[in-house]
Specification:
The chain has 13 helices and four strands.
Length: 259
């Protein structure tokens, strides 16, 4: 759905990965999470949501999925699309993508050394999913599927029929474009391998984290010791956490190795 909205000309479709590009968003999302699920802080107003999402044409997936009632109330003029799919297929997809990322040893390593973003992003992601699917619900296929459908029902109860589209992925452009008031494109509806796309996004995020690690830590080790940096770089390379060997070589050169 995100790709379809982009192809229809909606330039910014907010997604969880936006928090990697703009880490300051994480602080506000954490405040929203604490307010809604833990009773801490003050309620979010339209002004608060505008600060987070006012530059966007649309939002999709998490973290906004955790705040659908609040966003529907804040933006009563907005159109809402429920992307319907088999709940068991959804559970399998999430388990193989987000579930794997949340338990990744490589990402855990980044949490220890990328203190500016990954160290904040991953605990927030874990907390977000535990709030949406409490009591380890995602570990039970039936309970997770039931909760998935309940979240859809919550939206149906809040949104008037003229602002709601229940769309099954694979339907094509016609109903979606009619609902949004857009012209039907003359090319096929995009088909995206969600797990493959997720892994591509994770590779990009890991590369960004790697660059931050170099910027954050190299000033402290330059001129002091190259052995520790070399060992760290080799560990990342062997475990697939860092970029290519060209990226590793650039680290060595920056501390005086291989010049």
């Amino acid at each position: 759905m995100r790709q379809a909205l982009l192809e229809l000309g909606h330039e910014h479709v907010y997604h969880m990965t936006d928090n990697y590009k703009n880490p300051r968003d994480l602080d506000m999302w954490k405040e929203a999470l604490d307010w809604k699920f833990h009773g801490k802080g003050k309620p979010f107003t339209r002004k608060d949501w505008d600060q987070l999402l006012g530059h966007c044409d649309a939002t999709i997936d998490t973290p906004t999925a955790a705040f659908m009632p609040e966003l529907i109330e804040a933006y009563p003029e907005a159109k809402v699309i429920i992307s319907m799919r088999d709940p068991y297929a959804w559970h399998k997809s999430v388990t193989n993508s987000i579930g794997a990322a949340l338990s990744s040893k490589i990402i855990f390593a980044y949490m220890l050394i990328d203190t500016k973003v990954t160290a904040k992003f991953m605990p927030f992601a874990r907390e977000l999913f535990s709030c949406l699917f409490p009591d380890k619900m995602m570990e039970d296929r039936e309970l997770a599927a039931k909760r998935y459908l309940e979240l859809h029902d919550e939206v149906r109860q809040m949104v008037p029929a003229d602002r709601l589209l229940e769309y099954k992925l694979g339907e094509g452009w016609e109903r979606l474009c009619a609902f949004l008031g857009e012209d039907v494109p003359n090319h096929p509806f995009p088909r995206v391998n969600e797990n493959a796309e997720f892994m591509e996004r994770m590779e990009v995020q890991n590369s960004l984290a790697w660059e931050r690690v170099k910027q954050q830590w190299l000033p402290y080790v330059q001129g002091a010791t190259t052995a520790g940096v070399a060992a760290l770089a080799i560990w990342f390379m062997r475990n697939g956490a860092g970029p290519s060997t060209n990226g590793i070589s650039s680290i060595f050169r920056s501390v005086g190795i291989g010049r």
